[in-house]
């Protein structure tokens, strides 16, 4: 028999600052092509000797992991499962720049050692002396969801009791310049939000989101994660059957969903998929979050944090509403999250109040 | 020699990303590894690359590094005697 899975703690370092009670009430809508995460003080958390070698992604990851574990009162997780699209790309940038500028000579070790995608999960394991299962999933815009699926399998089968689940991606100057040149990121100087976007590309950002996930409900629990499904590619016309199959598998009807959290990012082609799902679920209140998080490969973790927040506190922060007028609701039980990027990496996640 | 020592201090701070440390905080005879500045083996590799890239000195014998990297003083002496750049 499958065990239940609960989100018992959350930590995050984002463009909206760190995870806190006023996270959504103090949130501001992003309107720049690239926005860096607001950095907390790392003094006391990471030793001065170690921090000098760490890129922002590593520091953000350790901070968010610490927050999630502390909230859930977990000292050492049984496993660490992370997802990242580009990994420690700032160190990759640095190493490749050094390789280029020095004509493949004088290569320094630090940035090379730390340029791998699993550096954040490894540093967290070192920090907490966690010698258990440690893996990083690197699957583009579905990286975090792949980590979430792995986490569900570990907990539902009883292989682990506590898993530290996270998603991390960082702004790397050269990499993001390439993404801008490719038209994925809006051009410098353009100030558009998700809702008033007219130019090509989307607003990009960075962030680290961690969840202490366990097989037991605790006093700090936010929500129960029911299920997840992934699909590499879909046409807009196929989204309805993708959604209905998932709901059927979980014995849910469209009317059972109180809200649907959509990954609207301001890109015309991307948003067609979200509109299609929204139209299939007319009774679910549509919500969005990428106007606050920005786009990056693991940004859907921000959406999961938003869902968990709503289910725990039984209120929707006004900044998350997609529509201006919404039906008055006082109870939020089931929330569906749908994410994809450029018509690929589709994921559906359903979370429930606990 | 004084200018070389100051240059070395600035380079070490930059290459090793020694946050909150200024050249004035590093004494010429202060130990770079262990008790002093607290550098470690990865830093030693960075210093070997620094010597090669900036001063054209290739350190092929790691045992030599232990003496050369004792302090800013010993590094500056070795560089001034062996530099090719």
Describe the structure in your own words.
The complex is a heterodimer of chains A (354) and B (85). With 354 residues, chain A is α/β, with parallel strands linked by helices. Chain A folds into two domains: 6-214, Peroxisomal Thiolase, Chain A, domain 1, CATH 3.40.47; 224-352, Peroxisomal Thiolase, Chain A, domain 1 (3-Layer(aba) Sandwich). Chain A is built from eleven helices and eleven strands. In chain A, β10 and β11 form a beta hairpin. In chain A, α2 packs across α5. The two termini of chain A are 19 Å apart. Chain B is mostly helical. Chain B has one domain (2-17, 27-82): Non-ribosomal Peptide Synthetase Peptidyl Carrier Protein, Chain A (Orthogonal Bundle), CATH 1.10.1200. In chain B, 55% of the residues lie in helices and 0% in strands. Chain B is built from four helices and no strands. In chain B, α1 (2-15) crosses α4 (72-82). The longest helix of chain B has 15 residues, at 41-55. Classes of the chains: A alpha/beta (354), B mainly alpha (85). Chains A and B meet through α1 and α4 of A and α2 of B.
Keywords summarizing the entry:
heterodimer; A: 354 residues; 2 domains; B: 85 residues; mainly alpha; Non-ribosomal Peptide Synthetase Peptidyl Carrier Protein, Chain A; 55% helix
Number of helices of chain B: 4
| Total helical elements of chain A | 11
Overall radius of gyration of chain B: 12 Å
> What is the domain total for the residues of chain B?
1
Number of domains of chain A: 2
CATH level-4 homologous superfamily of chain B? ACP-like
Decide which structural class fits the backbone of chain A.
alpha/beta
Helix proportion range of chain B: 55-70%
The CATH superfamily of the largest domain in chain A is identified as Thiolase/Chalcone synthase
Reading off the top of the CATH hierarchy, the class of the largest domain in chain A is best stated as Alpha Beta
């Amino acid at each position: 028999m499958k065990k239940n899975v609960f989100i018992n703690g959350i930590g995050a370092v984002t463009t909206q600052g760190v995870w806190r009670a006023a996270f959504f009430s103090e949130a501001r809508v992003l309107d720049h092509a690239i926005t860096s995460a607001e950095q907390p003080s790392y003094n006391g958390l990471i030793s001065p000797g170690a921090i000098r070698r760490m890129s922002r992604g590593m520091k953000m990851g350790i901070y968010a992991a610490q927050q999630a574990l502390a909230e859930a009162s977990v000292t050492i997780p049984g496993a660490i499962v992370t997802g990242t699209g580009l990994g420690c790309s700032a160190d990759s940038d640095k190493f490749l720049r050094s390789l280029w500028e020095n004509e493949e000579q004088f290569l320094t070790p630090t940035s090379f050692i730390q340029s791998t995608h699993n550096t954040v999960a490894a540093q967290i394991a070192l920090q907490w002396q966690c010698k258990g299962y440690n893996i990083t999933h690197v699957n583009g815009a579905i990286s975090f969801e792949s980590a979430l699926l792995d986490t569900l399998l570990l907990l539902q089968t009883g292989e682990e009791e506590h898993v530290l689940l996270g998603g991390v991606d960082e702004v790397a100057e050269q990499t993001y310049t390439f993404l801008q040149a490719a038209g994925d990121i809006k051009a410098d100087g353009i100030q558009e939000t998700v809702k008033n976007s007219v130019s090509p590309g989307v607003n990009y950002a960075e962030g680290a989101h961690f969840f202490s996930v366990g097989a037991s409900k605790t006093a700090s629990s936010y929500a129960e994660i029911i299920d997840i499904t992934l699909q590499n590619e879909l046409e807009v016309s196929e989204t309805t059957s993708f959604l209905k199959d998932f709901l059927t598998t979980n014995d849910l009807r469209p009317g059972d969903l109180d809200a649907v959290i959509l990954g609207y990012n301001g890109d015309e082609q991307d948003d067609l998929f979200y509109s299609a799902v929204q139209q299939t679920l007319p009774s679910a209140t549509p919500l969005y979050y990428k106007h606050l998080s920005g786009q990056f490969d693991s940004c859907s973790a921000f959406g999961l944090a938003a869902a968990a927040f709503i289910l725990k506190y039984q209120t929707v922060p006004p900044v998350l509403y997609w529509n201006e007028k919404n039906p008055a609701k006082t109870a939020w039980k089931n929330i569906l999250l749908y994410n994809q990027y450029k018509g690929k990496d589709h994921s559906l996640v359903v979370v429930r109040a606990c | 020699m004084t200018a070389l020592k100051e240059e070395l201090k600035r380079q070490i701070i930059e290459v090793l990303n020694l946050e909150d440390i200024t050249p004035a905080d590093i004494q010429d005879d202060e130990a770079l590894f262990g008790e002093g500045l607290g550098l470690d083996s990865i830093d030693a590799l960075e210093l070997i690359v620094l010597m090669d890239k900036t001063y054209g000195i290739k350190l092929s014998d790691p045992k030599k590094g232990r003496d050369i990297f004792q302090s800013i003083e010993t590094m500056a002496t070795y560089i001034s005697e062996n530099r090719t750049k």
